[in-house]
Every structure is written in structure tokens, then in C-alpha cells.
Amino acid sequence: MKKAINILVSLVMVAGLVSCNNGENKKGSKGQGGLATNAAEKVYVAPGEHDEYYAFFSGGYSGNLTVYGLPSGRMFKEIPVFSQFPTSGYGYSEETKPMFNTSFGFVPWDDSHHPDISQTGGKLDGRWIFINGNNTPRIARIDLETFETVEIIELPNSAGNHSSSFITENTEYVVAGTRFSVPVPQRDMPIKDYKGNFKGALSFISVDQETGRMGIKFQLMMPGFNYDLSHPGRDKSHGWFFFTTYNTEEANTLMEVNSSQNDKDFIAAVNWKVIEDYVNNGGGTKMPANYAHNVYDHDTHLATSTLEKEVLTVDPTKVPGAVFFLPTPKSPHGCDVDPTGEYIIGNGKLSADLTVHSFTKMLDAIENKKFDGEAYGIPILKFEDVLAGTVKQPGLGPLHTEFDGKGNAYTTFFISSEVVKWKLGTWEVLDRQPVFYSVGHGMIPGGNSREPFGKYFVAMNKITKDRYLPTGPELEHSAQLFDISGDKMELLLDFPTHGEPHYAAGIPADILKKNSKQFYKLADNKNPYATLSEADARVERKGNEVHVYMTTIRSHFTPDNIEGVKVGDKVFFHITNHEQDFDVPHGFAMIGANNAELLIMPGQTKTLVWEPKQVGVWPFYCTDFCSALHQEMQGYVRVSPANSNMELSWSLGED
């Protein structure tokens, strides 16, 4: 009887929950999770309507950048950046191969971590987005008019380019810090001699305000710690940059133990304006360095690669007032600056509390020389003199903090798997929500600018487990969308994310979508291999090179029959898409090609190389469904023996 009563009580409780959920919670009500609310209404984007925000997620080990809509969580695009991408032929076409040139040779992959959108006056302007390659140290710039990677610059003297890519509030600089300190210049030396002999390079990369073109202005040669993450000053602290460090022990083995001995590591505060003046007045030392600078031109549709030979380095001890250390417990990871520029949050992974430094107190301590010793000639400020406050025991494993522009901060906790909302100034915990599981970064659109758009928070979780249908031992990572417009966070949506997102940058769609390029004007095509009319389509031989100048338009290639190609030739298909309509690319695939297909945008020219190895008649075709006669969009190449006397010929519409 007792068992029956318990079952009855349970059923009544469940019925009550269902009843409340269906009848009581209206749109905008604040529940404790997606099951307790009408969350679906808040993320629903009706057919034909657009999302409110673009969200750009780093792809981690995919090497690329993915674009999602918020609040729907729909993935719209994967932007190839550091990895070859057969979907479009990026990194396979002759025009884009130079984007992967480095001092190590052709490197068609990287580990992309932290995107950041260009700003003017501390506000997102939507011109470009920058992202770091963590493995082979590089910074890329993506044009947000075309959503294409247009520049990649390699960083010499750097290794594990992690505290990147973060930008100053007028996009004067993109800043990139090395995670791993290394010998500078690189040389053969015992690893056990690490301490005192390795350096950590912090690269300040200038950005041309009109073109976006990047160039390494200077590299600050810091002590041989690990430089983990960074953020620029905002508003009152504009002109400064802040970097978390760990391994101030300078250990080189069993790091999980030996680099966690000190009670406090540092946040390095760098006055880049002081260093900029020093450099502009002839300071710094040029040193030999090999690094690639790769640029894609939208007019020629060509990438070019230049190998640079030197870089300007700066010794921080030679520039008084340039660099100071802020003691921060313990093994800090995230380094975040609030929109006012007053508070610098150091998230110590092994600390029970959140440490918040005061920029105003920091300046006072510097002015009054309140130092607590020095490290390699760099003054260490006294912890108590720069401390703004402490958020007491908010969670376990704090990583990153974002801001909503309303005086609130949101910190992710990896170990306790939660997002915690707390108040700047009072350090009071206001709310906490569980996430599933092991959250890394979080993102509020514009959350690292002067003017965040404090409506949504996205948690980027490292472990998925049971959130989606199982697909074997590997699952996509999980993002969770929270409504933060009210006093309490409300879970709205789970959605899978590609690769391993480390960070994301969000921006209102209205800033970007009106500027999005729909097609390239054929008349502006400056590619040297462009074929601007069908009458100019032709095939030319230069020794064992065969150059096919081809056009494509719904629904045929010109030419579509080619003869006279021989085994051992190197065939260059230079293909120009003559469409002048939005979203009508054409594909090109050649049987036996050892690379990828091409996807050619309207008005664009791309080149694919094919080296035929067998005699025969080999087809090519369009890979992108373009019209009702898409299947008929094809052609043939006849390949004759290497010693054949067959002359080149080509045709269209002839027997």
C-alpha cells in the first residue's frame, strides 16, 4: 500500500510539472532549464526570417572557423582558414595554395582558437575577423564582406600561439603571445637549460585601417614563462594589454606538477603605447627571422606569398614603464577586461577564488613604486595594492569571463561544469547554471568590447556524452545558449559545434548582412588567367604544360571537348564563372585529379591542376547543382600516349 501511495504521489507531481509547463510558463518566463520553459519559442526562427546574430566559432583542431546563427543555433558556413577545404578547393586551387606557405614549407592545417572582430572606438565594426593558428604560429584575417580568408601572417620566435588573436579597441594591433617559450634565436641546446635561457615572444601586429593589411610592428621578448591568454585594455585602460602567465617556475618536465608549485603566477601588464613611441623613435633591435606573409587579392583572385627576413624585437627592461607583473593565484588561464577598462580578471585554474585587479590601483602602485621585487628586471607589483576584490569560492576550475554591459560578469567553471553570474564591484554571486559538460570558453556577442550586446550567453562545452544521438566514440562538441536578458540565466538550446571551439565572437547580423558580397563583377576580374568571354576560351601548350582557358555558365563549359593532351602533361584548368547572379557557383571536378574539386563563385577565376597518367577519354563535370540541366553540364578530355603526334584541339557544340 505504501509503495502504491508513493507512486501516486510521484504521478501527481509529474502531472503538476507538465501542467505548469504547458499552461503557466509564457514566453519570457524564467525557469531553471530548457525543460521548464517555453524555450523553443525564443530560439525559433520562422522560414524566411533571419537570425539576430552571427556567431563565429573557432574550429580548434579543424583549423577553420564556423558561422552559426543565434538564437537558432543553425550552422551557415564553414570558413576555411588554416586547413585545406575540398568543399571549395581552398588550398587545392593554384590561386589559394600560397595561403599555406610557411617558413616550414607547405602547412595545410592548424589549430584555430580565438577569433576577434575588428572594432572602432571600442565598438564592433564588422569589417574583419582575426583568428590564430596555435600550432604553426600564424594570425589570419577574414574579410567579413566575402567571409573568405584574405591574409595569413606567420609569427617567428613564437611557439604555441595561444594568447591570440585579440585586438585593441581601434584595431590598431592584433596581439599574439607565445604559449611555449623557446630559445630565441632557435638553436641546439639542452632542454634542461630552459630556465633563464628561453624567451616568450609577444607579437604586436599592426593593422592598416583602410585595407586591413597586417605587419609585425615589434616583438616584446619576455621572460621564459608560458603566456596563456590575453586581452586589451578598454576605455580608461586603452593603451595597455594584459597577458596571463603560468609556469613562472620555468619547469620543463612533468608540467602538471612542476609548473604548479608557486602560489601565484602573473598577469603581465604591457603599456604598448609606451613601446610604440620607443619603436617609432628608433628603439628596438632588428634580428634575422624567416616568416611567411600570405595575402589574397579579391580583384585578381590570387594569393601571393612573401618570405620576410627580419623582425624588430624589444627588450622590456630597456623601456621603463612598459611592463609590470601583477601577482595572480594560481596558474591563471583566462585574462579578461571589463567594458569600462577598470577590472582585470585573472581566472586561476587552481584557485578557489576569482581574482579581480584594479587598473586605477595598478597605476597608483606604479606611480608610487609599490613593488614586491622583480623578475628578470620587470617590476612585480604588490598583490594587495592592485587587488580590486575577490569573488569567493564561486566554483571549481574557473577559465573565462565575459561581460553583459550591465555591470555583470559571467565566468565558466570547467570542473564544476557551470556558468556563474556575478556582480562587478560587489563581487556577489547572482546566479549559476549547470552546463553539459566541462565548459571551456563562453561568449556574449560583443562581450570583449566597450558595448556588449547582453542578450545571450553561449557556453562552449568540451564533452558531449549524452546530449545528442550517439555517433560512435567521437561526438561533435556541444554549445548551449542562455538567455541573460533577465535576472536569472535561462537555458534555451543545445546545438552541436564542429571541431573543438575554444572561443567565439558574436555580432548583430544587421551590421554584417547589408555589406555581404553577393557576387564578383566579371568586369572587375583581374586574374591573369581569366577568360572574360566564351570567344576567348582556348587551349594552349607550353612544353608539357597545357593551359585550358575555360568558361562556365548554366549549363555548359566552354570548351567541353578537348583533344591532344598526352600522358605526362600538366594540365591547368583556368575556369572563369560567367554567372552574375547571387549564389550561383559552379563546380569543376576532373577524374583522376590528385587534389580536389573547385567551387567557383560568380565572376571568379580558379585554377585546378591535373596530371593525366593513363590514356583514354576522361570526363569532367560540374559538382554544384546549378540548373535543371545540371547533369548535362559535362565534358571530355582525350588523353593520348606521351609520344603521340596528336595536336591540341577543342570545341563546343560540334560533332
TrEMBL record:
SUPFAM superfamilies: Cupredoxins, Nitrous oxide reductase, N-terminal domain
PROSITE patterns referenced in this protein's UniProt entry, alphabetically: COX2, PROKAR_LIPOPROTEIN
InterPro entries: Copper_CuA, Cupredoxin, N2O_reductase_N, Nitrous_oxide_Rdtase_Sec-dep, Nos_propeller, NosZ/Cyto_c_oxidase_sub2, WD40/YVTN_repeat-like_dom_sf
Highest taxon of the lineage: Bacteria
Subcellular localization, as worded in the UniProt entry: Cell envelope
This protein's UniProt keywords: Copper, Metal-binding
Segment forming the signal sequence: none
Protein name from the UniProt record: Nitrous oxide reductase
